[in-house]
Amino acid sequence: MKLNIEGLLVYFPYDYIYPEQYSYMLELKRTLDAKGHGVLEMPSGTGKTISLLSLIVAYQREYPLEVTKLIYCSRTVPEIEKVVEELRKLMEFYSKETGEKNNILALALSSRKNLCVHPEILHANIIVYSYHYLLDPKIADLVSKELSKKSVVVFDEAHNIDNVCIDSMSVNITRRTLDRSQANVETLQNTILKIKETDAAKLKEEYRRLVEGLKEANVARETDIYMSNPVLPDEILQEAVPGSIRTAEHFVGFMKRFLEYLKARLRIHHVVQESAPQFLKDIFEKVCIDRKPLRFCAERLRSLLRTLEIADIADFSAITLISNFATLVSTYSKGFTIIIEPFEDRTPTIANPVLHFSCMDPSIAIKPVFERFQSVIITSGTLSPLDIYPRILDFRPVTVASFTMTLARTCLCPLVVGRGNDQVAMTSKFETREDFAVIRNYGNLLLEMSAIVPDGIVAFFTSYTYMENIVASWYEQGILENVQRNKLIFIETPDAAETSMALEKYQEACENGRGAILLSVARGKVSEGIDFVHHFGRAVIMFGVPYVYTQSRILKARLEYLRDQFQIRENDFLTFDAMRHAAQCVGRAIRGKTDYGLMIFADKRYARADKRGKLPRWIQEHLTDGSLNLTIDETVQLSKHFLRQMAQPFRQEDQLGLSLLTLEQLQSEDMLQKIAQIAHQA
Amino acid sequence: MNGKWNDCFLGLKIIQFLIELHLEVDSIKMDEEPERAKRWEGGYERTWEILKEDESGSLKATVEEILFQAKRKRVFESHGQVRLGMMRHLYVVIDTSRTMEDQDLKPNRLTSTLKLVEYFVEEYFDQNPISQVGIITTKNKRAEKLTDLAGNPKKHIDALKKAKDSTCGGEPSLYNSLSLAMQTLKHMPGHSSREVLIIFSSLTTCDPANIYELVKTLKALKIRVSVIGLSAEVRVCTVLTRETGGSYHVILDESHFRELLMFHVKPPPATSSSECSLIRMGFPQHTIASLSDQDAKPSFSQAHLDSTSGGPGLSMGGYFCPQCQAKYTELPVECKVCGLTLVSAPHLARSFHHLFPLEAFQESPLLLHHTERFCEACQGELKDKSVFTCPSCNSVFCVECDLFIHDTLHCCPSCIHSRSAP
């Protein structure tokens, strides 16, 4: 159908449209008009992707000078494929409707086997790729730095974007990294020697270039051709590479010294935590390495690798990591912390020293993106509470909106179970974690649900250790045996191969009527990337509130930083983080309007306003007072009723006019008024 | 033609002739109001959520609306001129697994189900006199035949009564039940409609092999599988019914369960590929030898010969097969001796309305009808806000009479009246 969105003609490749899609496009258009950034939350399965694509493509066609490119960032390869599929549909619709040949070029970067090096791809109108191509400074420099300023960047499934930013800037150095770097340095040295014998002029030429400094890059940046790179700070562009590392041999020697120092630092027996300036002071005192050459490390290494014409850069990943670390640690005095741990918390007897150079400020990595592109859209099914993302990513959005799902039937049923039938409170709180009664009640809940929910149930625990403890205890109490009379049980493990095997078997059991339960972990692979449509997930049970492991030093440092820099209280952030993961987990069950599922929050703390209020609006609005603090029996009653209701025939005609609209219905006054209420400005 | 020999082919003429008879038979049998479960026995309901106040804050309008809707609640599926599978071979599979002990139907699922199936069997033969039923139960991963395919309701009902005392246990097996039903059904003639109706309480099934292979076989054999679920929607049933062309429903409560079962009483539309053929039938008359006749001796019914149950089996009169003179006490039946299908004329007439259903009456608001103040049928005053008009004679009826005419009478009394009047 063809839509008129505030004067913009939008081609929408389907005959029907959800009201919230229309509302979403309205908000999106306003964001583009204002040339600002936006944060938009809309439940999954309501057609976010196609709304985004059709509006932005229409905008590009209408105002080709205002918006030249769409950069669509998604998280995983299957998601990228989904986007490409939708895009293909849109393009077909365009050529059918307008009759002209398709003049839009789209490019998807998924894996090396699909790589294309045709020069024309530089002019692609739409680029679809993974977050890392834009956020990770190491990759962004190769892939994304030449993207035009007048681009619209979309981050889909962006609820974890702060963690992606942090990960892309953090460096972990173990003994193994150092050993491999050592080997890398050896190779470099040998290559330099060889080249010196055969082609000394080349090294001289490099030396000359380094004296000139990084002028070229500076010119490029000033003329606004490239996106800035956080690993290549502004100041060093103005200066020449310092003399101490200008010749290749000197640089290699310098790196050797640096490596030795790091090795010495790893030989410790107690935990050390220090800031970047402290680290720099220490390194200067111990091995006389100055701050300035350290800052040029990354650039210098890159230049050297280029000069030596080394083809396979992957071999040199270890030394590249070290040089990046050197640059980062000497550039940023704030926002990073260094933690050296002699062993892992779980295995205090085995020495396994790690140096965490941990980024605490996600805004550092994403800053260039916000600065460079005129519109950045952050969107996901779960972004609540909406105001926290602009704060932790440090940007100022022009639109912040949350959309609810219009439903012809209430297909989601969130329930908060707070007590067992014996009235003992159910919670995963640390103090009562080992409590026998709590574990038994959790077991009873699973047992009762396994008897009434058809096909698949997905249960999430707060961590692997917690899951192990509970499952062991259930086994002793004979609960597992009883559950197995109703359904098969599969367990997620940290091992990816094992987990995908379990998943496959789980789906098979759901498919052929045996029924299955998947026990998994919030923040695990299952909770993030895998959808449990229809019968694969008729109920999701969230055992406990998935707080992050608070004893971790990295997290503590980050919390402190958030408090000092952004005035976000520790507890607020922890709750926010726990709730977004809980929302992600329970959201796995509902992947569209024809789907239905139970969402069971098994912890009394979910009933509290501070937790409940942080759930996405589309879940919150179905969480009434009547579904809070239930006992197991009440839950079973409500669930049975819900499942029977949902099993009644449901056809497309039932949705029409309510949650699914034709063009005429969309244009009616009443509907437009209703649509205006869908978007909820934060 | 010999007076005793009423051997003829199923034809339209006879059916037309017999419609009057059928009217008499059916109108005697008043449909008793379905018994709703007691309020406190029902599930957890949020009745207050349905109520909405009108502008003046009164609830009256919504309450009336709800009552009216409840009366009208039924499916108006007039197929029009569609070929129906009048000759049905149906296996009813009853899940008797552990989950049947659940007490959400009173007194428990098993008793309630068996009671309803009993009623269903009666209705089924009432509406499909030339069809057959068999019953299969499944528990402990096995499937057993409770009764074979047969046209005699009594045998099934006896078996069902007995089954009430059996214990439930283990898991059901869809695969075993279906393959058991399939073994018999696949030998049924091509013109008959082959059906399986599963009453499925459990949420799991324990199968010895891949059930999707079996579904393909069922589809190839044109066996239609329908499922009534007692707890929730199970994926494998969805696929099974979709692939084989059956229906899948899940009950809400006991009265809904009854409704869903009754839905299966009506013959389904025939699949386009099923054969057409003429069926040879016998219409024996009931003869009782007069007491004065000294030669009369009590004789055994053929049907009683192999039955282990039942009374003495000796009787004076009965139906005699027009072809071989074998005696039967009940109809309809397939003659044991010569294989002829024996039915009585009223039986056949009862199937008639399935082929030519009465057209739906037009619903219109009462306000439009100033002249008619009374219902044409019951002569009661028209009070509801909607009335129903027969499209052919333009008579006006109230909701109750509309339901009664379509569900039970199957013909408009006003039309009949005007036709028979001289």
Automatic annotation (TrEMBL), chain A:
Top-level enzyme category: isomerase
Catalytic activity: ATP + H2O = ADP + phosphate + H(+)
CDD domains on file: DEAHc_XPD, SF2_C_XPD
Any one GO MF annotation of this record: 5'-3' DNA helicase activity
Coiled-coil annotated residue ranges, if any: 171-220
Domain Helicase ATP-binding stretches: 7-205
Cofactors named for this entry: [4Fe-4S] cluster
A Gene Ontology term for the protein's cellular component: nucleus
UniProtKB keywords: 4Fe-4S, ATP-binding, Coiled coil, DNA damage, DNA repair, DNA-binding, Helicase, Hydrolase, Iron, Iron-sulfur, Isomerase, Metal-binding, Nucleotide-binding, Nucleus, Transcription, Transcription regulation
EC nos: 5.6.2.3
GO terms of biological process kind: DNA repair; hair cell differentiation; positive regulation of mitotic recombination; transcription by RNA polymerase II
Primary localization: nucleus
Pfam families documented for this protein: DEAD_2, HBB, Helicase_C_2
InterPro entries: ATP-dep_Helicase_C, DinG/Rad3-like, DNA/RNA_helicase_DEAH_CS, HBB, Helic_SF1/SF2_ATP-bd_DinG/Rad3, Helicase-like_DEXD_c2, P-loop_NTPase, RAD3-like_helicase_DEAD
Subcellular location: Nucleus
Annotated family: Belongs to the helicase family. RAD3/XPD subfamily.
Name of the molecule in the record: General transcription and DNA repair factor IIH helicase subunit XPD
Lineage of the species this protein comes from: Eukaryota, Metazoa, Chordata, Craniata, Vertebrata
Gene (name only): LOC110507601
Automatic annotation (TrEMBL), chain B:
Family annotation (Pfam families): C1_4, Ssl1
GO molecular-function term, one example from the UniProt record: zinc ion binding
Domain of life per record: Eukaryota
PROSITE patterns per UniProt: VWFA (PS50234), ZINC_FINGER_C2H2_1 (PS00028)
Keyword terms: DNA damage, DNA repair, Metal-binding, Nucleus, Transcription, Transcription regulation, Zinc, Zinc-finger
Transmembrane segments: none
InterPro entries: C1-like_sf (IPR046349), Ssl1-like (IPR007198), TFIIH_C1-like_dom (IPR004595), TFIIH_SSL1/p44 (IPR012170), VWF_A (IPR002035), vWFA_dom_sf (IPR036465), Znf_C2H2_type (IPR013087), Znf_RING/FYVE/PHD (IPR013083)
One Gene Ontology term from the biological process aspect of the record: regulation of transcription by RNA polymerase II
SMART domains registered for this protein in UniProt: C1_4 (SM01047), VWA (SM00327)
Compartments where found: Nucleus
Zn finger residue spans: C4-type: 321-338
GO cellular component, one term: transcription factor TFIIH core complex
Domain named VWFA: residues: 89-231
Family recorded in the similarity comment: Belongs to the GTF2H2 family.
Official protein name in the record: General transcription factor IIH subunit
Organism: Oncorhynchus mykiss (Rainbow trout)
Gene: gtf2h2
